[in-house]
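Q: What residues go here?
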């Protein structure tokens, strides 16, 4: 019961953080879950929570979703899942932390070629492969997904809505891979999944309200350093676990 309470508190606090900064919460939650649960169980719970969080965002922005992106993205995501399923890959906890922590740095250091426009089918399909593979390995892939949208001609509402729908799909695939194929869904009580998803929605609501009181310049300054600091901590901890 103490562990379940710790998990719910972690879901609440990270959801509040994501509501304020629009990121970072999923990374921190993945790092916490993989430290207290097996990797498959952590992936299943994380997938359920993040699917609800991103799914609700997609519903709020439903008219702005760019549906033409989905067919090639789904094709790429299917290829990634098929590849993982063929070898039933389950990464070590240290590897998960290293990958989670590396995502913000990869997203910042790698250039975003002008050819990476999600309006183009090859780009959308490649995004489906890369981002879904990252989600199955690390649980979180937001910084990589951003790279594919930086050069797109979409409006900000279309970007946020389309990212939300593709992230929801990715987390559902992660949920299915680790829950059905790996068989981790039964490691945690069913009520915990429901409580965690409701807690995530409540935390997101609190965070978005707190965002109203944060100045634009403070938001930009704080968010960038927070995500890099969290990534660095995950890399260090993951390296220690592997050594």
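A:
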């Amino acid at each position: 019961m103490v562990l379940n309470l710790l998990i719910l508190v972690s879901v609440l606090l990270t959801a509040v953080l994501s509501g304020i900064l629009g990121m970072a919460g999923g990374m921190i939650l993945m790092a916490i879950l993989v430290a207290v649960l097996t990797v498959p169980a952590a992936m299943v719970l994380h997938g359920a929570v993040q699917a609800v969080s991103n799914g609700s965002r997609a519903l709020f922005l439903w008219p702005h979703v760019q549906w033409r992106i989905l067919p090639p993205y789904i094709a790429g995501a299917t290829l990634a899942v098929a590849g993982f399923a063929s070898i039933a890959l389950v990464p070590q906890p240290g590897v998960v932390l290293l990958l989670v922590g590396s995502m913000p740095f990869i997203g910042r250091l790698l250039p975003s070629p002008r050819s990476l426009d999600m309006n183009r089918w090859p780009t959308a399909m490649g995004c489906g492969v890369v981002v879904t593979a990252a989600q199955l390995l690390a649980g979180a892939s937001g910084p990589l997904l951003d790279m594919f949208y930086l050069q797109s001609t979409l409006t900000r509402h279309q970007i946020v809505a389309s990212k939300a729908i593709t992230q929801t799909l990715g987390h559902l695939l992660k949920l299915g891979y680790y829950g059905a194929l790996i068989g981790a869904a039964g490691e945690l009580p069913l009520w915990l999944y429901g409580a965690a998803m409701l807690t995530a929605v409540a935390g997101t609501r609190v965070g978005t309200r707190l965002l109203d009181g944060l100045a634009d310049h403070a938001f930009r300054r704080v968010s960038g350093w927070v995500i890099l600091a969290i990534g660095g901590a995950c890399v260090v901890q993951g390296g220690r676990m592997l050594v």
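A: Context that may help when evaluating the design: The chain has one domain: 2-242. The mean pLDDT is 82.
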